[in-house]
Amino acid sequence: MTQILVFIAAVLLFYWLSRSFSHNEKHVYSKKQFQRFILTKEHLAQSELGLFVALVAKVAKADGRVDELEAELVGNMFNDISTLFPEPESTKKFLKEIFDAEKQTAQNLEKTAGSLYTLLQNDPHKRQKMVEFMVNLAYIDGTLSHSEEEMLLNIGALLHFNRDQLTAMLDQFASIHRHSVKESSLSQAYALLGLSQESTNDEIKKAYRALVREHHPDIIKAQGASDEYLKIATEKVQEINAAYEMIKKSRG
């Protein structure tokens, strides 16, 4: 009898593990998914990742400009996504072209978000992670303009994302900024970047970009990560950015 119970328990455990794996696996992007992807700019633009990049472009330009840190994060995002495809360099080129075109076009927001929702309507986890990333991008410089907030609320509604949840998310990211961007001395700012006051401007920019690249919120990894992933990444990048801005201001 004991052996039978052990066997049943083992079967149930295996079933639970299998279900858990398959549940998580569908949320994670992998190279295998894109092995047979026909890479053209048009095909990529209509894929879920291409449509996501289009929405990111609209958020990035919502306040009228794409600042230095946003540009760094977007560039890193291109790297993350392009590694999934058989032709990374061509993919990165197309993603940049999609981004540059879409950041100038606000009229097709409803169509773009609607197309993405159609592809992901049965995957609320991916939609949540994508919305989190866009909120992170808008807030990464520590401020959220009215136009950025309106853009995020519109995108959230078009992706059928609960407005109360999105508002709570905005409050969370605002809280992260308040607690992460601390007043510090100039020497502490240099130390955070691993530099000294004798470092050249080129060395400072190079160190800044390397740290942002290391700690930036990776939308691909975030698909299978805990809900804390983007928040932790955001906090770290905001600290790096605050230090960089302090150094830049001190140098005129």
Shape: globular
Number of domains: 1
**Number of E-state strands:** 0
Unreliable stretches, pLDDT < 50, 5 or more residues? 1-26
Report the mean per-residue pLDDT as an integer.
Answer: 82
Taken as a percent bin, the fraction of beta residues is under 5%
Q: Give helix and strand order, one letter per element, not per position.
A: HHHHHHHHHHHHH
Q: What percent of the residues sit in helical stretches (DSSP H or I)? A: over 70%
Rounded to the nearest angstrom, the distance between the terminal CA atoms is 80 Å
Rg, Å, rounded: 21 Å
| Count of DSSP H/I helices | 13
Q: In short, what is this structure?
A:
By secondary structure, the protein is mainly α.
Descriptive report:
By secondary structure, the chain is mainly alpha-helical. The longest helix has 24 residues, at 2-25. The protein has helices at 2-25, 41-45, 48-60, 68-82, 88-102, 109-120, 124-139, 146-158, 163-180, 186-192, 201-215, 219-222, 229-250.
